[in-house]
Design a protein that fits this description.
470 residues; alpha/beta; 8-stranded parallel barrel; 6-stranded antiparallel beta sheet; elongated
Length: 470
């Protein structure tokens, strides 16, 4: 390994240790997934992001990539340079600075599994390749805004840094999934799959250390199921990991009992101390909201192995893959169910909820375009922030509804059915006290607890969230 990698790594780590960055998002904080946002737009929105209660922002992969479509951000050409249609290193620094000044952390999506599919352009596996290196030479004056680490006179990787060119055929074979290429179909050579060579590991360490040095406080590990966990652990050194939120994207069809969970997510949780996308809970939500299913299945999904441990869960109602990749679109919830699911995810204890907001990349109109500004989500986030650290107890649950409290300061009710529900519970043993007064944060109104048996009205196909009035 060349000396410039070692110098870059050491320098970036020292800078990261000395930098007074925003504290990493804590358990139960809400993350805004600013999917495919320009970094300049993140910076310009920093005031409103903080005002609406978000405590972290996840941005699309900060590296060298080309091409307008969103999926090109997930096809790295070079880790050493931050330059893509969303901005450059200086733009990302400005976003970090603007967010940090308002107490909001920035998380970066990182692609460590593969490099860009450029098989249609060339036959070699030199990255970034002769064409891009020629551009670097022509753009010398602009490199100061773009360079993350090292120097770019030569290639970062060669053919020796990749697994053999074989497409994944059997997704139930972990060896294929971790060592094969993600391919788009017949004739597609796929995404060149990086091997855990010393050169790859040291370059990826230098990349992550450079991002930490800029002030990045968390990492989403894209396609984590496609990497050997020893590779992931080797890259996320204790120094890089220190104080950072790290969470893997491992798509499964459920929790305990699901084949993908047993093959990929359970070993990931056992082999690392990282958090992960809570696909078990997501599928429990989908199941509970299905026609004819019972909502009380969400009373305690973790007890059935259908939710991740609270301290390691990134919870969600939709991820960027679900609307934007055709193979996942059948996972899209009904719009009303998605809102009710948000009330559940935001209201419950544990996990770090993710709010997905795009620029209509999926061509679904305004379904998620600007969703981060929705008034109902803002109210839910405000409630969640106010309930930090409060325990959770289910008060009433049935086929159509779920009602639970957060400490003595909050009550959340969800009714998935088309008829109103009068949810009742005994005040004795509920953890609540008579005569407490609550305001409803979504639709307005109030609730005053009485004595004996308490009845709470839940309108059809609606959620209600009450916060105690001091």
């Amino acid at each position: 390994m060349t000396d410039h990698f070692r110098r870059a790594l050491a320098g970036a780590l020292l800078y990261a240790a000395a930098l007074c960055a925003a504290a990493p998002a804590a358990a139960e904080d809400v993350i805004l997934h600013a999917f495919n946002w320009r970094y300049a737009d993140v910076a310009a929105s920093a005031d409103e992001i903080a005002r609406r209660g978000y405590r972290a922002v996840l941005v699309s992969p900060p590296l060298r990539s080309e091409g307008a479509p969103w999926y090109q951000r997930y096809q790295p050409q070079d880790y050493r340079m931050l330059h893509n249609p969303l901005g450059d290193r200086a733009d990302l620094e400005a976003a970090i600075t603007a967010l940090r000044a308002r107490g909001v952390a920035l998380h970066a999506d990182v692609v460590l599994n593969h490099m860009a599919n450029e098989g249609a352009q060339r036959n070699d596996l030199d990255y970034p390749g002769a064409r891009v290196l020629a551009q670097y030479r022509a753009e010398g004056a602009q490199q100061a805004r773009r360079l993350l680490f090292g120097e770019v006179s030569g290639n970062l990787f060669t053919a020796a840094d990749f697994h053999p060119a074989r497409c994944i055929v059997d997704y139930n074979d972990p060896q294929q999934v971790r060592n094969g290429r993600l391919c788009g179909g017949p004739g597609d050579p796929g995404l060149p799959d990086l091997a855990a060579t010393p050169r790859v590991i040291e370059a990826q360490r230098a990349y992550l250390a450079a991002l930490r040095g800029l002030g990045v406080a968390g990492f989403r590990v894209d396609a984590a199921k496609h990497m050997d966990f020893a590779h992931i652990e080797a890259v996320f050194t204790p120094v890089i990991r220190d104080g950072a939120n790290v969470y893997g994207e491992i798509i499964t069809g459920g929790g305990q009992g699901n084949g993908e969970y047993g093959l990929y997510l359970a070993p990931y949780l056992a082999g690392t101390d990282h958090s992960a996308y809570d696909f078990p809970l997501f599928h429990a939500i989908r199941s509970a909201f299905a026609f004819g299913a019972r909502l009380d299945g969400l009373a305690d999904p973790a007890a059935r192995g259908q939710a991740l441990p609270a301290a390691r869960a990134i919870t969600f109602t939709v991820t960027h893959d679900i609307p934007n990749n055709g193979i996942f679109r059948d996972l899209i919830l009904d719009p009303v169910d998605e809102t009710l699911a948000y009330a559940y995810v935001m209201g419950r204890a544990g996990g770090m909820p993710l709010v997905y907001s795009d620029n209509n990349e999926s061509n679904d109109g305004d379904r998620w375009n600007g969703a981060w500004r929705r008034a109902d989500l803002t109210a839910m986030i405000g409630f969640r922030n106010a309930m930090r650290g409060e325990d959770m107890q289910v008060l009433s649950a049935g086929h159509c509804h779920l009602l639970f409290r957060r400490g003595q300061r909050g009550i959340v009710g969800v009714n998935k059915c088309a008829e109103p529900v009068a949810a009742t519970f005994a005040l004795a043993g509920s953890g609540l006290s008579g005569s407490q007064r609550f305001r409803e944060v979504l639709a307005g109104g109030s609730l005053v607890l009485g004595s004996g048996t308490q009845a709470v009205k839940l309108p059809p196909r609606a959620a209600r969230i009450w916060q105690r009035i001091k």
